[in-house]
Amino acid sequence: MLKVVSCGQQLLRVMFLVNTRRGNTHLRTLTCLRTGHVRTVACTSSLVQNYSVRLSFINRDSILFNYPAVKDIRKYSSNSSEAEPGQLNRLEYDKFCNETLESLYDYFEDVVEGCEHIRGCDVTFNDGVLTIQLGEHGTYVINRQTPNRQIWLSSPSSGPKRYDYVKNKKCWIYRHDNRSLHDILQEEISKITKNKLNFFDCAHSGR
Fold first, then answer.
1. What DSSP assignment string belongs to 80-114?
2. Which of 5, 111, 131, 159 has the largest count of CB atoms under 10 Å?
3. pLDDT > 90: what percent of the chain?
4. Checking DSSP bridges between strand 51-57 and strand 38-43, what pairing results, if any?
5. How far apart, in Å, are the Cα atoms of 143 and each of 40, 58, 150, 195, 196?
6. How far apart are CA 29 and CA 4, in angstroms?
7. What is the dihedral of CA 18, 128, 182, 138, to 10 degrees?
8. Torsion angles phi and psi, residue 67, rounded to 5
9. Is 44 buried (19+), middle (13-18) or exposed (0-12) by CB count in 10 A?
10. Strand, coil or helix: what is 12?
11. What residue segments make up the domains of the chain, in order of their start?
12. Which of 33-37, 42-46, 84-88, 198-202 has the lowest mean pLDDT?
């Protein structure tokens, strides 16, 4: 799977999935210089040995993709706004996701200000990634995953979760336990801060 995230005069950001030898799948983002028709870049991680990705630019929105795990060369486009049945289309996803993350960022700023008893607290929001540092309690990361039209949560308390937007509930749901993103944040952050919080005041909390 390959997804062009953004394309400019000189830079191209690409998201793609890689399979490890252990059978796990990881999402990777590459930023490439558009200095020619073909560029070769590499992705590394602790679980994945170096893999080279060869990108041949066709036009602003399409590329040819050649990856060692794929024997043939395939063409992908980044323009599609269509959705599978029951899923958000691209315009809906962008709107709901942006509203959710911006609302959470504003609320977490207030939460951090009220955590003077916890050393090392901080919150940042950059390029679709919301990072909340809670000192000795660890770091929460909430970020958009446009190719999947999801929001991903990395929690030091309960681990990683992937949330889909459920329209009839008006919130982001983790389908393995049917709990919402705001529900898990309400439970975990309240325990950590020992303050009275209400994440359900945030956008797209379902309430």
1. -----TTS--HHHHHHHHHHHHHHHHHHHHHHHHT
2. 111
3. 55
4. antiparallel
5. 27, 30, 9, 24, 25
6. 10
7. 80
8. -130, 140
9. exposed
10. strand
11. 2-77, 90-201
12. 42-46
For the domain 90-201, what is the CATH code? 3.30.920.10
Contact 27, 17 (CB under 8 A): yes
128 vs 5: CA distance, rounded Å: 12
Per the CB < 8 A criterion, the answer to whether 103 and 96 are in contact is: no
3-class SS at 183? helix
Q: What percentage of the chain carries pLDDT values higher than 70? A: 58
Q: Please report the pLDDT score of residue 101 as a whole number.
A: 98
Whether 176 and 199 have beta carbons less than 8 Å apart is answered as: no
Amino acid at 116: E
Matching residue, tokens 């996701």: 97
pLDDT tens sequence across 65-115: 443 333 332 333 334 455 454 678 999 999 999 999 999 999 999 999 998
For 15, 24, 138, the CA distances from 2, given in Å and listed in that order, are 6, 17, 32
The per-residue pLDDT for range 180-194, each reduced to its tens digit, is: 999 999 999 999 999
